[in-house]
Specification:
Layout (H helix, E strand, L loop, with lengths): L5 H9 L5 E7 L5 E4 L5 E2 L5 H13 L8 E3 L20 E3 H10 L3 H11 L1 H10 L6 E2 L12 E3 L1 H12 L6 H11 L6 H4 L9 H4 L6 E9 L2 E10 L2 E10 L12 H18 L5
Antiparallel strand pairs: 1-2, 1-10, 3-7, 4-5, 6-7, 8-9, 9-10
């Protein structure tokens, strides 16, 4: 029976994956799931979670107000994900609007705008304060100038989510705001692709929404990542799935990371539900 433990079944899924997969999950009841949990991975847009945490730290310290207006400037233009690159330079929005765009559609211009507002040193200082020794933002987003954006590990990527779940990310108010923004996320293929949509959709089904997720994904040539909080009728858990070193760098929905990663997410959710709230 040892060959059918949760860890062994995750390893069985990972066996056919051409790259390296890192998995970390915590049920907040003393049980964790770990696969390459302390391995270094490129963050891609997952680094936007520490950026958001830094912004909320500054709000908590009353150094920044979320309703203050800032502008999208030419210096922060960059291709890639988001919608601001299709809008006019000079557009003025609230800081909260920039933060929301950075997370829910992974807007790169909004991200650069907030990096400029906060400073790279302050963002990495936040990582230090939160005990994230291996997580760092290396530079603003500029695909021509830099090959890397950030570095983290599966275990460390879970920490900010864990703190928010426990309402200890600076304060209960900041924790709730963090989760509220992350719940609007548009891109969570890695975590939800193999799950039954019915349980996430009360608007169209008219039934109670039994599952919800607050997450942030990230993709670059070198990685496909996702992580966040699952909320269920039995409680919640954090999960991160990071991948690298795969054969195919192209972006498409059937990429092998989006085949094997979602299987791991589904296995962990099913196991958690079958045990009514634990691993």
């Amino acid at each position: 029976m040892e060959k059918l433990t949760l860890s062994s079944r995750i390893n069985a899924i990972n066996y056919s994956f051409s790259g390296t997969m890192g998995v970390y999950a915590n049920d907040f009841k003393g049980n964790t799931i770990e696969l390459n949990a302390d391995e270094h991975f490129e963050t891609a847009s997952c680094i936007k979670v520490p950026i958001l945490a830094t912004l909320l730290r500054r709000v908590h310290e009353k150094q920044i107000h979320l309703d203050d207006k800032i502008s999208y400037t030419p210096e922060n233009y960059v291709d890639g994900s988001g919608i601001l690159r299709a809008l006019s330079v000079g557009l003025e929005l609230s800081i909260l609007d920039f933060a929301t765009l950075m997370i829910i559609v992974s807007d790169n211009i909004a991200t650069n705008t907030l990096i400029e507002l906060l400073g790279i040193d302050a963002i990495n200082e936040t990582c230090e304060i939160l005990g994230l020794k291996e997580t760092r933002l290396h530079n603003k987003i500029d695909f021509e100038a830099y090959r890397q954006l950030g570095t983290t590990t599966p275990r460390e990527y879970a920490v900010i989510f864990e703190l928010a779940y426990k309402k200890k990310l600076w304060s209960a108010e900041m924790s709730d705001l963090f989760v509220a923004i992350l719940k609007k996320q548009h891109y969570n293929t890695m975590l939800t692709k193999d799950l039954t949509p019915y349980y996430f959709d009360s608007e169209d089904t008219g039934d109670e929404e039994l599952l919800s997720i607050a997450s942030k994904s990230g993709s670059m040539n070198a990685c496909r990542n996702d992580g966040g909080l699952f909320y269920t009728p039995y409680g919640g858990y954090v999960i991160t799935i990071l991948t690298k070193d795969f054969r195919d760098p192209l972006y498409y929905s059937e990429h092998e990371s989006y085949q094997f990663g979602p299987k791991v997410s589904r296995l962990i959710l099913d196991h958690y539900l079958s045990l009514k709230g634990s691993f």
